[in-house]
Write a structure and sequence with these properties.
The structure is a single chain. The chain has 137 residues and is α+β, with helices and mostly antiparallel strands. It is 57% helix and 19% strand. It contains two helices and four strands. The protein has a four-stranded antiparallel beta sheet with strand order 1-2-3-4, covered by helices on one side. The longest helix has 42 residues.
Length: 137
């Protein structure tokens, strides 16, 4: 079992992780996890834990994990948006085929305001990209 364990364990938290060094080479043959750092994904900060100095190997492992984590979070963001598009399509179908007048009355204003806000943001961002594209040409 010890041979298959990673050298580091990252306990994910909302904006980063706590980093532990995994140790299985002890007399009791049990797994020890020693916290070595706390990291913040948003600002890239790496704080050594308990006044310790991180080795180059520690920093390389942490930076690699941070890059992988950012990629996972970015992919999740896109997936969430694609799910939202699907949900909007399902909502349109529900409104057209199944919703009662009372149900529509309960959600119409919120949906219209939300969609108006989203449309405004998307149109503005699209215009910004088009203007930027023309300047780059």
């Amino acid at each position: 079992m010890a041979a298959s364990l990673p050298e580091y364990f990252f306990r994910v938290r909302e904006n980063g992780a706590f980093v532990f060094r995994v140790d299985t080479e002890n007399r009791q043959r049990r797994i020890d996890m020693d916290q070595i750092a706390a990291i913040n994904i948003r600002n890239g900060e790496i704080k050594p834990h308990g006044g310790r100095a991180l080795s180059d190997q520690d920093l390389a492992a942490i930076k690699s994990w941070m890059a992988d984590r950012r990629a996972v979070l970015a992919a999740r963001d896109i997936d969430d948006i694609k799910r939202a598009v699907d949900h909007l399509n399902l909502t349109a179908h529900w409104a057209q085929t199944k919703a009662t007048d009372e149900q529509l009355e309960a959600v119409t204003d919120d949906l219209l305001l939300t969609m108006h806000d989203l449309r405004s943001v998307l149109v503005r961002k699209k215009a910004d990209r088009l203007i930027k594209g023309q300047k780059d040409d």
